[in-house]
């Protein structure tokens, strides 16, 4: 079973940048598709981005396309979310999630979750 810990969240001004990290352990990281999802205050959880097992394919929500970049380093068992040009509406708890090979790398269901990291964007 995979355990994941997110880091890198914080408070940033609109227009700024943050990079989130998701450190995984307890499984073979390179066999898991990775994703980031978020839940803003009073909102449903929503998909942000996903990356395939080897990193060759990525997918983004329309709301973050062109501003966010998902990546992974299988040697370090870590996934990343680079967030640029942040907006107030990006304020949310961001979750790292993973799916094993038998599951759809795009979700919508994910088997494993981190505890989340808060991102707050001030306008």
Describe this structure in words.
By secondary structure, this protein is mainly beta. The protein has no helices and 11 strands. The strands form 2 sheets. Strands 2, 4, 5, 6, 9, 10 and 11 form a 7-stranded mixed beta sheet that branches. Strands 1-3-8-7 form a 4-stranded antiparallel beta sheet, with no helix packed on it. The model has no long low-confidence stretch (mean pLDDT 96).
Keywords, please?
mainly beta, about 120 residues, four-stranded antiparallel β-sheet, single chain, seven-stranded mixed β-sheet
What's the short story on this structure?
It is built from no helices and eleven strands.
Percent helix range: under 10%
* Element-level helix/strand string: EEEEEEEEEEE
Q: State the distance separating the first and last CA atoms.
A: 39 Å
- Overall shape: it is globular
If helices are DSSP runs of H or I spanning 4 or more residues, what is the number of helices? 0
- Beta-strand content: over 45%
Low-confidence stretches: none
Largest sheet, in brief, is: 7 strands, mixed
Strand and helix map with partners:
Blueprint: E1 3-7, E2 10-13, E3 18-25, E4 33-39, E5 46-51, E6 58-60, E7 68-73, E8 78-83, E9 92-99, E10 112-113, E11 117-122
Parallel strand pairs: 2-11
Antiparallel strand pairs: 1-3, 3-8, 4-5, 4-9, 5-6, 7-8, 9-10, 9-11
């Amino acid at each position: 079973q995979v355990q994941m810990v997110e880091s890198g969240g914080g408070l940033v001004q609109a227009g700024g940048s943050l990079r989130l990290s998701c450190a995984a352990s307890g499984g073979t990281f390179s066999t898991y598709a990775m994703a980031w999802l978020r839940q803003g205050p009073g909102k449903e959880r929503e998909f942000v981005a996903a990356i395939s097992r080897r990193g060759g394919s990525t997918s983004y929500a329309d709301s973050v396309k062109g501003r966010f970049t998902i990546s992974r380093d299988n040697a370090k068992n870590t996934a990343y979310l680079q967030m640029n040009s942040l907006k107030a509406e990006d304020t949310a708890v961001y979750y790292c999630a993973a799916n094993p090979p038998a599951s759809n790398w795009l979700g919508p269901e994910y088997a494993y979750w981190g505890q989340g990291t808060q991102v707050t964007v001030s306008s």
